[in-house]
Amino acid sequence: MYKQLIRPIFFSFDPEKIHHFTFSLIKLTSKIPGLQAVFRSLYVVNDKKLERNLFGLTFKNPVGLAAGFDKNAVLYNELANFGFGFIEIGTVTPKGQAGNPKKRLFRLKDDKGIINRMGFNNEGVEAAITQLKKNKGQLVIGGNIGKNTATKPEDYTKDYLTCFNALHPYVDYFVLNVSCPNVGSHEKLNDKDYLLELIGAVQKANKTFEKQKPIVLKIAPDLNEGQLDEIIELINETNLDGVIASNTSVDRTGLKASESMLNAIGNGGLSGQPIKDKSTKVIQYLATKSNKAFPIIGVGGIHSANDALEKINAGADLVQVYTGFIYEGPRLVKSINKALLKTT
């Protein structure tokens, strides 16, 4: 019903406006007595065989919702009813910020993709904490953290630490988002020396807490083999807990969308089906070259159960969906979990 009826209606409206409308709709319907139970019966697959133990955490199943969907942690309790094993909130910055000017979110329908240049729009870390205090403990929650756009280069690490320290009691793991193409100073955030500084500072802060939280790095899908080798070296040097592969891409190669359409859209990060193979190759390279020395969360272009299985076969321990969830609907999560049960 989603793809035949609901999606055509949703896709006839502005992507960002329909995103906010969908949030309100899920919130509203979830307050109707008995409807959350209906959602769970339709979409949740409960089976011990789906459990994954990673980073010292137990995931009910290996299918998560990537960061960017529930930026301000306002919907994770309701989204748990759609079958996810974990949800990543954010990207959260110390202060709330509006992000880049609108229009900044674009569908590539023929490609089953999305281009966005949102620019870390969010309400800030304190607003996220207010929402996370309502956590019903239904699934694992990740905290994706970044810097404010206006922050000076010498204060980047301070921004990450502000978010890390504030969110620490409320999330189960952390993601250092240093690979988003829609924020300023992208170059410095990918410099190995700076990453060593940032990771070291966050790990030092982690040790001040009684219970330390896993920390992973989210990387771009556009890295070449030399850069991926540097990522492997970085993880070995810092003992980082893992990697999310991958973020959105700036590459426009092979798209069905016309050049005039892409020029009209302008810059931004590409997600969805067009980056499926690119992200899978990154996963496979990291897993093979490192001899599976660290966990990998695979994300990028998962629109079917087979897409998810490709990521897992390539070396991913967990997978995340976002654009595929928008295009294929909530049954995507169930179909992946059902397929995984058949392989066990």
From TrEMBL:
Pathway: Pyrimidine metabolism; UMP biosynthesis via de novo pathway; orotate from (S)-dihydroorotate (quinone route): step 1/1. FMN binds at residues 67-71, 91, 144, 177, 218, 246, 272, 301, 322-323. It catalyses: (S)-dihydroorotate + a quinone = orotate + a quinol. The active site is at residue 180. GO terms for molecular function: dihydroorotate dehydrogenase (quinone) activity. Residues 50-341 form the Dihydroorotate dehydrogenase catalytic domain. GO terms for biological process: 'de novo' pyrimidine nucleobase biosynthetic process; 'de novo' UMP biosynthetic process. It is found in: Cell membrane; Membrane. NCBIfam families: PRK05286.1-2, PRK05286.2-5, pyrD_sub2. Belongs to the dihydroorotate dehydrogenase family. Type 2 subfamily. HAMAP family: DHO_dh_type2 (MF_00225). Catalyzes the conversion of dihydroorotate to orotate with quinone as electron acceptor. This is Dihydroorotate dehydrogenase (quinone). The gene is pyrD.
